Every structure is written in structure tokens, then in C-alpha cells.
Amino acid sequence: MPEIRSNEFSLRRPGTRSLVFLALCVVFAVAAPVLSQTATVNSACENAGSTAAMRGCEIARLKRADEGMNAAYQSLSSKLDQRGREKLRAAQAAWLKFRVAEVNFQADAARGGTLAPLIAASVQADLTEARRAELEKAAWEFK
Hints:
The protein has about 140 residues and is an all-alpha fold. It folds into two domains: about 35 residues; about 90 residues, Substrate Binding Domain Of Dnak, Chain:A, Domain 2.
């Protein structure tokens, strides 16, 4: 067992366990309602039995993805100078056009069918989640 120095964090130190327990209680008290709600939505979506229910789940996922992407965009934009913001704005506008074209292309596989709107919502959510991750990475790397 490695030696624990007095200046290092240790659960053996008096009061440390209580402090850790209190911190965990606060984290779980704050996170529990959100996790519970997310688990309920995920469960309902995993058990969705109709195309309409699946589409509703994908639309909800798209809404969350759009909110995340917009927050990431704003975070990155706030770190850029005027020229950088203009380039980001142009890149985002081009990406939005690409997203529409890609969604239309992929949904066309079910042209005229009831699956087309489900495919469109799913592809749009997937692409938006990926773009959010790209923007978050760029914002994190920019520092």
C-alpha cells in the first residue's frame, strides 16, 4: 500500500468521510430529479411501439441537440474576435444547409412512406449532436 502523506487527501483524516458523504448527498439531491426524468423519457422511447411515438422521441432528442449545439456555438463565438465570429457564422450557415440536404437525401430512402419523417428527425438529431460535439471541442481547444 502506498504511503499517505499528511498533506495528501485521505479518507482516514478526521472529518474527511463526513465531508465526502455530504458532497455526494448534495450531488445526488440535485441530479436525482434530472436523472429520473431522463430515465423515464429513455424508457418510454426505448419501448416506443409506433412510428409516431418514435418520431416524437426523435423530435425531443433533436430539440435537446439543438439547444446543446446553440449553447456550444455561443460559447465558441464568445471566444473569437470579429473576424473569427464571421468565419464561424459562415461555417455554421453552410453546415445548416448541409444538414437540410443530408436529411432530405437520407429520408428519401423511405419516400412517401410513414418512416420518412422518422428518418428525417433521427438523421437531423444525429447530425446536430455531432455538430454540438465539434463546436464544444473547438471552444475547449481555443481557450
